[in-house]
Amino acid sequence: xxxxxxxxxxxxxxxxxxxxxxxxxxxxxxxxxxxxxxxxxxxxxxxxxxxxxxxxxxxxxxxxxxxxxxxxxxxxxxxxxxxxxxxxxxxxxxxxxxxxxxxxxxxxxxxxxxxxxxxxxxxxxxxxxxxxxxxxxxxxxxxxxxxxxxxxxxxxxxxxxxxxxxxxxxxxxxxxxxxxxxxxxxxxxxxxxxxxxxxxxxxxxxx
Length: 207
Description:
The chain is an alpha/beta fold. 28% of the residues lie in helices and 25% in strands.
C-alpha cells in the first residue's frame, strides 16, 4: 500500500515561494512589460494579512505597506528616468554595504546606484513629512551621513513623502558632504515631477 501511495505522489514537489521567485526575476527588454504587474503582486504578497471576525462571519483582507509602496514608486521612477538596469539600481542593497571594515554594521539604503565599479548615487525615502521649511529630522541626517561615509560619495538625497515643501541642503563642514532634502507631495499625480533629484547627475565616488 505504501509503495502504491508513493507511486501516485512521487511527482508532487513543494510549491515554489512566489515572493522569492518574483525577487529573482532578471528584468530585460523582453519581459519588462510584465514588471508593473509583478511589482503589484509583490506588494500584496509582502503585506500583512488580517481578518475581521464577527460571529460566524469573517472578512479576509490585507494591509498595504504604504512606506514600501512609496519607496518602490520612487525607485522605479528614478530607474526609468536614468535608464538603469535592476543590477545597477537594485531593489535592495541588503548584504552589500557596511559602515565598518569588519562588516558588523550593515547599511541598507532605499536608493543606491552602483555601476562601473563605483557608487554613483545614494538616497533614502521617508514616509513622513519634512519640516514646514523642508528641514530633515536629525536621525535621518545621521543615517544619510553614514551612507555617504560607507559609499565614499559627497552628495546624498533624503526624500520625504508627505506634502510638498521647499528643497533644502545641508553642508557638512568637516567631511565636505552635502545632503539634499526633497519633499514630494503625494496628492499630485506625479509626485517626483519637477524635483531636483530627477536631474541629479550620477557622480563617481571622490572621497
